[in-house]
Design a protein that fits this description.
It comes from Alienimonas californiensis. The protein is an alpha+beta fold. The chain has 4 domains: about 180 residues, Endonuclease, Chain A (2-Layer Sandwich), CATH 3.30.870; about 130 residues, 2-Layer Sandwich (Endonuclease, Chain A); about 100 residues, Sandwich (Immunoglobulin-like); about 70 residues, no CATH class. Helix content is about 30%, strand content about 25%. The strands form 4 sheets. Strands 8-14-13-12-9-10-11-15 form an 8-stranded mixed β-sheet. Strand 9, helix 6 and strand 10 form a beta-alpha-beta unit. Helix 4 runs antiparallel to helix 5 and helix 15 packs across helix 16. The C terminus is likely disordered.
């Protein structure tokens, strides 16, 4: 099950709806969040495409999927763990309602779960749920991670073993609820999740959400244990020695294992991911003359216990073998119960070390005589975490308002921040920026009240995220985004963002053809040439998106009449943006007047008038 060469999981494929079903609701939890990765998620959720090559950029193919996700996708992350992207992208503004930051109990505790709960509806079929439990965050990291997927249909009565999972999602909704949360939770309680092959039972373990939600690994006993954890702490290893009577195997990262005193590894056989795996991509790129490549480090978390005889219990998810995971963090673990060789420790050792146990992807680790010093200054890192926590939880955003700029075309963001004089700077500096604006960050300073003004921001680049950077002697130490409440944001901002991405009349017609295409006809989201055309343009195939628009409109009116209402709303939104935001794109209206005249006539000819809103163009 853990053969690194055979058992590969595509993240995007795990989010694709089952055949005959469509996404109704998606709730996710992650420690850290990459906005470019999040941009690609709706493509999997709605167009059944993988995440490869879809992140980043401003493409009309992404617009429809992202707009659909606004009402059904909610992603909870640790507050302050949204990464600052390397470049601007107006599409980030369409993600703001999907994202919720969760505060932590203190600077050294984490909101650390990695979970997806997906609800799918099908015509005439039962509602289905999918649970995805991972060790990977919603980022573009290339590390070795672990994931498990469970599916099931909504039944007639609650399943008692689902109660902890329902409690976890209710805990998330308590941070910020979502439409239909009560019905979503009621259905979730009645799902009978099928165990993966080789297992006969599943249990759910939310950790750190109150009540009795403790980490089960801390009290699990057994005859043997196999632990995979990239980060390790002596306290957790003491527990493994205390609770397991026989063979104990630990798989970790070389640099983390080197920091442990030899006594901490006593009674355990330790292994580290081979440098050939960690640096493999870099070596390949060096040979090919490629650029910088990401390290493929170990990031999976798994605890496998042999409890008695042939019985095994697997615990996988977000929790490391650390004191924080046992005592401080919010985590989520999935427990799988099975028996037999197929899910036993010896099978896993064969896959990870080879049948002769001489080493495969992992190599035996020999502790050094003296523990290696941690990279950097541990005290300095703790100081950064304290400052970061106070910036998120103690620095008050007393006012954040958008007002018209002096030129009358763009906008200024006015900020009033209270409490900078109480921050534990400890020789560090903080700067604050208006995210996605292209403007430079401003020093926060040390005054009790700080007033900042970021001028002349175009409407499509206004954001509810603030950008923070912590630095020492000009050297950046940490940067992150924090979502805030902003007053005065223009009501038509979403339309302006869409107009800016569509660009011109040619882009509008391309977008319209995309909206009218059947789902199976849609080209890949990254399938776009420099001139804006795609590999499926005008080639005579069923994907020919140059087919007459009238023909496609008639087909849509007969097969998917509700889609015309959505298109009418898009047209109205773009027309409003044409009128109100001349600075957001090339000159001239995005929706041509000739098309508007045709659209009014076409809509009026439909039996119900196209089900259009009364104030449509």
């Amino acid at each position: 099950m853990l053969d690194l060469r055979k058992h590969r999981v595509d993240y995007g494929e795990q989010l694709v709806p089952p055949d005959g079903y469509a996404l109704a609701r998606a709730v996710a939890a992650t420690y850290s969040l990459d906005l470019d990765t999040l941009l690609s998620v709706p493509v999997a959720l709605f167009f059944a495409q993988t995440l490869e090559g879809t992140g980043g950029g401003e493409r009309v193919q992404l617009l429809d999927a992202i707009r659909r996700s606004a009402g059904v996708l909610r992603v909870y992350h640790q507050r302050g763990r949204v990464k600052v992207p390397p470049r601007q992208n107006r599409l980030y503004g369409l993600l703001e309602d999907c994202v919720v930051g969760v505060p932590t109990a203190g600077p050294f505790a984490s909101f650390h779960p990695k979970v997806w709960v997906l609800q799918f509806e099908g015509e005439g079929g039962p509602t289905r749920y999918r649970l995805l439990v991972l060790s990977r965050n919603l980022t573009a990291e290339r590390s070795w991670d672990l994931a498990a997927t469970l599916e099931g249909e909504v039944g007639e009565k609650p399943e008692k073993w689902n109660a902890p999972l329902v409690d976890f999602v209710r805990y998330l909704a308590g941070r910020k609820t979502f439409e239909g949360a009560d019905a979503f939770l009621d259905d979730l309680a009645r799902v009978r999740f099928a165990p993966p092959k080789g297992f006969h039972a599943v249990r759910f373990h939310p950790i750190g959400i109150g009540g009795s939600s403790r980490n089960p690994v801390g009290r699990q006993r057994g005859e043997r244990v196999l632990c995979i954890s990239p980060f390790v702490h002596e306290h957790a290893l003491d527990g493994l020695r205390r609770n397991v009577t026989g063979d104990r195997r630990l798989f970790g990262r070389t640099e983390e294992l080197r920091r442990l005193p030899a006594a901490a590894l006593a009674g355990l056989q330790a292994y580290a991911l081979s440098d050939l795996v960690v640096e493999g991509e870099s070596r390949d790129d060096a040979e090919d003359g490629g650029g910088e490549a990401a390290r493929q480090e170990l990031h999976a978390k798994l605890f496998v216990y042999h409890t008695h005889g042939r019985a095994s219990r697997w615990f996988l998810g977000s929790a490391n073998a650390t004191k924080a995971a046992l005592e401080k963090n919010v985590e989520f673990l999935l427990e799988l119960r099975g028996s037999g060789e197929a899910v036993g420790i010896d099978r896993l050792l064969d896959e990870m070390l080879g049948p002769d146990r001489a080493g495969g992807a992992f190599e035996e680790f020999a502790p050094p005589e003296e523990p290696a010093a941690a990279e950097g200054d541990a005290a300095a890192e703790r100081a950064v975490r304290r400052l970061e926590f106070d910036l998120l939880e103690s620095l008050e955003v007393a006012r954040a308002a958008v007002v018209r700029s002096a030129n009358g075309a763009n906008y200024d963001l006015e900020l009033t921040l209270i409490g900078a004089d109480r921050l534990p700077l400890d020789g560090m500096d903080v700067s604050v920026g208006a995210f996605n604006s292209g403007l430079k960050r401003r020093p926060l300073g040390r005054e009790p009240r700080v007033d900042l003004r970021f001028e002349n921001v175009t409407e499509g680049h206004l954001s509810r995220f603030l950008e923070f950077e912590i630095a020492r002697d000009g050297e950046p130490l940490r940067s992150f985004l924090k979502k805030i409440d902003v007053t005065g944001l223009p009501e038509g901002r979403v339309g302006v963002i869409v107009r800016g991405v569509v660009g011109d009349a040619g882009g509008f017609l391309e977008y319209l053809r995309f909206l009218l295409a059947e789902e199976f006809e849609k080209p890949p989201a990254d399938d776009r040439r420099r001139d804006g055309s795609t590999a499926g343009d005008a080639d005579g195939s069923p994907r020919d998106r140059q087919a007459p628009i009238l023909e496609r409109l008639l087909v849509t009116a007969s097969r998917r009449p509700g889609r015309l209402k959505e298109i009418d709303a898009v047209i109205k939104e773009l027309c409003d943006a044409d009128d109100g935001a001349p600075g957001e794109g090339p000159g001239g209206p995005v929706v041509p007047e000739t098309f508007l005249a045709f659209w009014r006539s076409f809509r009026a000819a439909l039996p119900d008038g196209g089900a259009a809103p009364e104030d449509a163009p």
